[in-house]
Amino acid sequence: MPTSNEQRLRRGAIAAAVVAAAAAIPAAEASSHREAPLIAADPAVDNTDVYAFTSPDKPDTVTLVANWFGLQEPNGGPNFYPWATDARYDLNIDADGDAVPDKTFRFTFSTDDRRGKNTFLYNNGPVTSINDDNLLFRQNYSLELMEPGKSTTLVRNGRAAPSNTGAASFPDFAAIRDQATVKIPGGGQVYVGPSEDSFFLDLRVFDLLYGGNLKEVNQDTLMGYNVNTIAIQVPKTMLALKGDPKRNPVIGVWSDTERRTLRLDPGKATPQGPFVQVSRLGNPLVNEVVSSAAIKDAFNGLEPVGDASVQALLDRVNDPELARLIQAIYGIPAPKTPRADLVEIFLTGITTKAGGPIKADLNSQLNNADVDPKRFAPSEMLRLNMSTPVAKNPNRLGVLGGDLQGFPNGRRLTDDVVDIEIQAVVGAAQTGKLVPALAKGDRVNANDVRFGDRFPYVGLPSNRAVNSR
Questions:
Q1: Which one, of 246, 270, 271, lies nearest residue 259 by Cα?
Q2: CB atoms within 10 A of CB 193
Q3: Given 214, 272, 302, 303, which is the most exposed site by the fewest CB atoms within 10 A?
């Protein structure tokens, strides 16, 4: 956990109010792939997406999925896509609404590289188990549960699943993934390893918002790419304020990565100095479009506790540039400002207690019975109401499609956040009706790889070249 002094040093520079506007923007860098200058040069610690949902087959638990190291071409050897060993990969939970983590699941990695002077190969034969002698490059991890004043080791020397280097090397990668899925104390389980990128969208938003006439759509830009995934499933009682998900069902979730400075010498990189937060992600599509290039790196170093402190960015939330661009290009009138609906959706959670225009109590920590409203801090994070029943027939448009279990109430793998957020920025949350002219969105409505019915739910990593599709 950061010390109080560290927290004070990180507060107040750039508000994550960026998200309220950015999160209502069509994808700019594939949710958060390479979204800022510094992190674009350090993909191993780049947060790309965060998901949080009630586990459909175990509804007394919540599944959290966080991805890093986006845009992995499956055949990118010989080093492929290792986790950084000088970094901390965190999944944070805020149950009381003060924008400070009550629990942090922290993953740190070590490498067992057996190649030495003998070979450049990642593996020197078919790998049929996670401990197969043919697997020459291995990574292990430790998982700690960080809480105020204490730390508990949940997994020691866990084995991360390796990169899927091809069908000849990994004839049954599903079996490898099952072996890399382990139980944790308290009734949970965790998977660490590669997966097919769960985010689906058409990224041609930069060409005058899909060509200026919505003809540049229906192309899944991330098809065939992989990511590094941490998925953890835990009982709701582990996450809820005071361990009581009935009285306190709402949690806030975000991921971050902390890295040490590297001293570079010829042929060697040595970590040194303190850990510094270099990447952060809560809601999808953050820090891409609204913030300028000058402040993107600063946003990645911020913690949620300081999010509401920069008026210049709050102004852009209340008067989002995208709405004006859509009006100029497509003639769809921008909603009146200020945009209290976007502030409520992305900074406070949806609640009547915040005085916003959306008359519902859905996913703000202010709805928790034991939250002190005086300590509540508006901040950017993915908020989930754990008491919302699992939808029998999920709607890809989530809450805007009448499915209260979907985004922005948490985020499921199947939620079409691009189309949801396009509709949000043109006012669908205000009226309760979709804007017909944009109803088809980017026409990428589902992932190209089927998601699983059981943990970790994410798709198996591709082993086929992206340019062969």
A1: 271
A2: 27
A3: 272
